């Protein structure tokens, strides 16, 4: 006697046949895209001026992009030929996330219009149609069944919703692309990233940027669930040098898209913050040392450069050329790193963190007291060292606008391009150090110091080397930072504050992006500098929202935004042995064997 088992076909939250749900989603996405050609409000007082017909503007562009993305995913799920490459992993999960992103951005925009202009009466019929069509699109996407159906229908609606968003394994390629095609895909991906970043940073503060941020927070996971990010990661790993070159070329193109210095200065400060975070990543991410006073090394480099760069307030009265000031700042930070690290690096864990925190505060207080009253007149106390002159290299004055390739570049655009070169140098140092024998020894110490010592690694010497290297890299960034802000004051180098750079934000950037990786701290630093700068209107609520965001991140993605393989295995059950990859550290991962010598 045989027993027949029947399995209930998986369904989404809304009971619709699968093909019907796909058609509804596609039709709704197409209609939502069409509504961006209509006026959403009659008044131009709302930022972005959404009063035009057949000319999407402001947050209508976000809805337009979301509608097109949802439509493409829905058509790929329908099996349209030529679009299967868009969903190499899941089909329904990315469609649902894209529809959710479009719905959230559209409804946020309409609610913001009503609040800003005092009433729903200020909405035009185009806005009402956008609300209805985006809701229909989301309803159709919610009716899609999960990509991974195991025959068991989840009980509660929340369980069914999370099952619909579950990740699917990446399907193998049907055919290999030629190398030139893969390189073109990498270039197109970085060009799209530059376009998205430029749109976001140029967006007006307030509701337009919040709407853009809401959309990006949901749309990026949609690309991840589709498998596009995994495909791109594999391509960048194959063409590592091309990917790095494309990334720096895309970043260097940013000032050419700006007419003024309003947002170029934000880009220059992001690069400074990212460079310092990458130096901290050597200490925290590779060597596993918790440093809570790292911003002091940035301050040492900034003060050293300010004292020798020709400022009329400098106590030394020196005016070194830029290369000499750069070396002075790096050397001063390196010396302080060795002096502080030598007596303290025999400590471990919390004790080391307390000592480094104390060093950061001692530096700030010492700079306050070297004012000629409570100490020697070196730093001018709380007033700092102002009027640091602009850099001039081979007759190129960074304080004056210039034309490059016929395109005008403003003052901070010059410093932005200089920081691109400094960041490229720091990236090169980090990559070479991480892939070296010393880098593998650092990773061994981080994972298990006792085992590393038993293998013959000189733990203290290598920890001191990591501390000194991280300090020197921070000093390089500090030298440029002093010239960008034209002053060096103690208040700039605190442990915590509402605006970066400070030690708390630097450490958060490394953890947020992904410890031990190359691209992680760069992404984390960019987010932690850009978002507070664009959300300045929130004032005292910035730190509250920042804390909530960190709590959510540690709950749902404790390994960081761009983790290495080891961290993913540590924090998530993958059903496989906890064996790290055998690859050497690369642009996205710094994994190594614990068997290393120093």
Q: What can you tell me about this protein's structure?
A:
With 598 residues, this protein is an all-alpha fold. The protein has 2 domains: 18-147 and 184-238, no CATH class; 260-386 and 417-526, no CATH class. Helices cover 59% and strands 2% of the residues. It has 21 helices and 4 strands. It has helices at 18-35, 59-77, 92-116, 125-142, 157-164, 179-202, 207-226, 228-238, 240-252, 264-286, 295-308, 322-344, 349-369, 411-435, 437-447, 449-454, 459-485, 503-513, 519-534, 542-556, 565-571, and strands spanning 392-393, 396-397, 402-404, 407-409. The protein has a two-stranded antiparallel ribbon. Strands 3-4 form a two-stranded antiparallel sheet. A hairpin with a 2-residue loop joins strand 3 (402-404) and strand 4. Helix 11 packs antiparallel against helix 12. The longest helix has 27 residues, at 459-485. Mean pLDDT is 82; it is low at 1-6 and 575-598.
